[in-house]
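User: Predict structure, ligand pantoate.
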Amino acid sequence: MKTVRSPVAAARLAGSGPHPIVLVPTMGALHEGHLSLICHAKILAGRKGCVWVSVFVNPVQFGPGEDFSRYPRPFARDARLCREAGADVLFAPKPTGMYAPDHSVFVEESRLSAGLCGASRSGHFRGVCTVVAKLFHLTRADIAVFGEKDWQQLAVIRRMVRDLDFPVRIAAAPTIREPDGLAMSSRNAYLATEERAQAPVLRRALLAARERLLSGGSLPASRLVQSVIRDISRRPLAVVDYVEVVDADTLAPLRCAEHNVLVAVAVRFGKTRLIDNIHIP
Ligand code: PAF
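Assistant: Predicted complex:
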């Protein structure tokens, strides 16, 4: 595995040969969820393609007061995991390498980014789109793999690729979970013992919502939202940021939960904000 630290070196190495470059963009602090994305990428790359993993904690997707400075950065461990997972190139630029001090061009998706996490994390998806666009250019990825845990991010990036004609195919990989159902996330490491014990309530509430919907055929979205909020709020440390029922493709709020439903939640445990979702096609 090659490790590349400079964007210029990455762009020189990338080249557009006959075999696919498959990119897994990450912010590091890798866990089994990321390893499953790399595994997906290896299948998509085939024997002759090349799997790139980027590790970059992107400052422009964090708002003031968010966890940019304390985000875990266990680089040596990440490099080892990438090597063991069979990545071909680890692209780990320094923050100063990715953004010029007077950087002034950003990519903004204006529709799918507005609700859900976009409503409480202003500027977040602008930062995500900007860095992902830069990573696509630098690596000349043919395919990029993203996790369904960040469903809104996946939808926003698909829209960016469609609307700006990026020659990149976006592949989605399912959420990987702890045995108790908690979706894997680098931020789970922030949870105190009691918070961690209560966090699986997100998954349980979403599964209960699916049961309710499947047994009733269709439901007013507001009733589904209320039931999820009630289930989550039974856990005293859980503070609901949002529970929304939206169309899984357009992310538009639904009045009646019937077809292609996405129930998405964000919940705070102390200073840690966790997200999860369930797709009910
Ligand atoms: O999902 C993430 O880890 C990040 O948002 C991404 C896509 C790597 C961009 O920084």
